[in-house]
UniProtKB/TrEMBL annotation:
InterPro entries: AAA+_ATPase, ABC_carbohydrate_import_ATPase, ABC_transporter-like_ATP-bd, ABC_transporter-like_CS, P-loop_NTPase. The keyword Translocase applies. This is Lipase. Pfam families: ABC_tran. GO terms for molecular function: ATP binding; ATP hydrolysis activity.
Length: 504
């Protein structure tokens, strides 16, 4: 399947782009990009981090001005460039990965926020604001308490609030940037249903996601960018995840299961009867030196809560935990780190890394004792430690002092992993390590995981994407409603077997 997918001759494009070019500091970010989006279409914009997706969205929404010669047609009007006001007035909305919402404000205030903007001050009509919010949510088939602060709701509901806010802005075209990056499978299914509702009502959606299964499920066509250039526009009919990966990266990735015998290796972690009422019950598991144990399951399975208990951040009510044969009971995560347990959080942006801080500071923050001399931090030890892990994990950076936020998602995740490897752990718990990471970077991260296991590190790999644990773990535990209900060995079963059990 090559070339450009034909546009339905019976429908005029809502958005049509031609000759879009953008250069930053002599670096060509976009090169003659052009494609169309139809009214009511769900269209995927695919590409690795750094391929130009965000730059293209910012041009369409007026944040950036493209180079001369660009043609942007929207609903029959032609522009050489758009301003943010022009784009919003035309009905173009963006829901960024960080949502750009106000946690301390109510749901109603977040949804109706744009209706309050203007040059003249005015009194706030809270009754009208609530009605506006409820109407927008009803259009999505969702009911929320609009008077509650947004911070009271989990990320899945916040996504819905962001979509409702776009509808208040009379959206005709909505860009969704990694909308499912922090969602579980069941939350993702609900969000995709909402996207279908938008599409059926005539709103076009451009969906940006690194989860290729979602791309194939939700979109009718996809535009692929690579290194700022258009690879092509394709129908998703007959498309496969591996084919999309090849188009995005220009490479072929072989997915094979790990067949290793670690049964003779010493046990690093042994858990018996571990329980925390309301979260998980009667958990029993072992992880051996050099073994990768996968844990998967749906929303409410208790996977993350189990990980937080093993890391000393939640206190189990009963059960035992042994580390290298010795019973442990952690009072805090400091105790866990000191004992040799490391935990990579699923929420990289809020919990895993400190975005305004430097790459170097983020990497060493969990291992300050290793870079002190005479009670003071040693700049030379810090530089050496950072340089070592950047080299070992193949992280692409500018300078060690650059803010971590300047890195791509894949490189940020490598720094997050390096932060914990620098503590010299015995057990590494990876909770959804590829959230918000593109397919090429995912492959690199799992190469690192495989090398760490081969070097003897015990690893727990948690993911709600079954293929991740199937292809990268020696054993897989299936958790449901706080219990381990199945155990699988990838060498002795198929991917379909585990998916059937998890998604039944």
């Amino acid at each position: 399947m090559t070339g450009r997918a034909s546009v339905d001759s019976g429908r005029k494009p809502l958005l049509s782009l031609r000759n879009i070019n953008m250069t930053f500091g002599g670096v060509r970010a976009l090169k003659d990009v052009g494609f169309d989006v139809l009214p009511g279409e769900v269209h995927c914009l695919a590409g690795e981090n750094g391929s130009g997706k965000s730059t293209l969205i910012k041009i369409i929404t007026g944040v950036y001005r493209p180079q001369d010669g660009a043609v942007i047609e929207f609903d029959g009007q032609t522009y050489s460039h758009m301003s943010p006001v022009t784009a919003q007035n035309a009905g173009i909305q963006v829901i960024w990965q960080d949502l750009a919402l106000f946690p301390e404000m109510t749901v109603a205030e977040n949804i109706a926020f744009q209706t309050l903007l203007g040059r003249r001050p005015r009194f706030v009509n809270y009754s009208s604001m609530r009605k506006t919010a409820e109407k927008a949510l009803a259009r999505l088939g969702v009911t929320l308490d609009v008077d509650r602060p947004l911070k009271d709701y989990p990320i899945a509901q916040r996504q819905i609030v962001a979509i409702a806010r776009a509808l208040v802005g009379e959206a005709r075209l909505v860009f969704m940037d990694e909308p499912t990056a922090s969602l579980t499978q069941s939350e993702t299914d609900h969000l995709l249903d909402i996207v279908r509702t938008l599409s059926a009502s005539g709103v076009a959606v451009v969906f940006v996601s690194h989860r290729l299964a979602e791309v194939l499920e939700i979109s009718s066509r996809l535009t692929v960018l690579r290194d700022g250039a258009l690879v092509g526009v394709y129908s998703t009919g007959g498309m496969t995840q591996s084919r999309i990966t090849e188009l995005m990266t220009g490479k072929t990735f072989d997915q094979t299961i790990r067949i290793r015998d670690v049964s003779a290796n010493p046990v690093v972690l042994e858990v018996e009867g571990l329980s925390l009422p309301g979260q998980f019950e009667g958990i029993a598991l072992t992880v051996r030196r050099g073994e990768t144990l996968g844990i998967t399951g749906l929303l409410g399975a208790g996977r993350t809560e189990l990980a937080l208990s093993l890391f000393g951040m939640l206190k189990p009510r009963s059960g035992t935990v042994k580390l290298e044969g010795k019973p442990v009971r952690f009072s805090s995560n400091r105790d866990a780190i000191a004992a040799g347990v490391a935990y990579l959080s699923e929420d990289r942006l809020s919990l895993g890394l400190i975005q305004p801080q430097s790459i170097a500071d983020n990497l060493v923050i969990a291992s300050l004792d290793r870079i002190t001399s005479g009670g003071l931090l040693s700049d030379s030890r810090k530089r050496d430690l950072v340089a070592q892990w950047i080299a070992d994990l193949g992280v692409k950076i500018g300078q060690q002092g650059d803010a971590i936020s300047t890195l791509s998602g894949g490189n940020q995740q490598r720094i997050a992993i390096a932060k914990w490897l620098a503590t010299d752990p015995k057990l590494l718990i990876l909770d959804a390590p590829t959230v918000g990471v593109d397919v090429g970077a995912r492959a690199g991260i799992f190469e690192i995981v495989a090398k760490l296991a081969d070097s003897g590190l015990a690893i727990i790999l948690i993911s709600d994407e079954v293929p991740e644990v199937y292809f990268n773990a020696d054993r897989v535990l299936h958790m449901a409603q706080g219990r381990v209900v199945n155990q699988f060995t990838p060498a002795a079963c198929s991917l379909a077997d585990i998916e059937a059990a998890v998604y039944a």
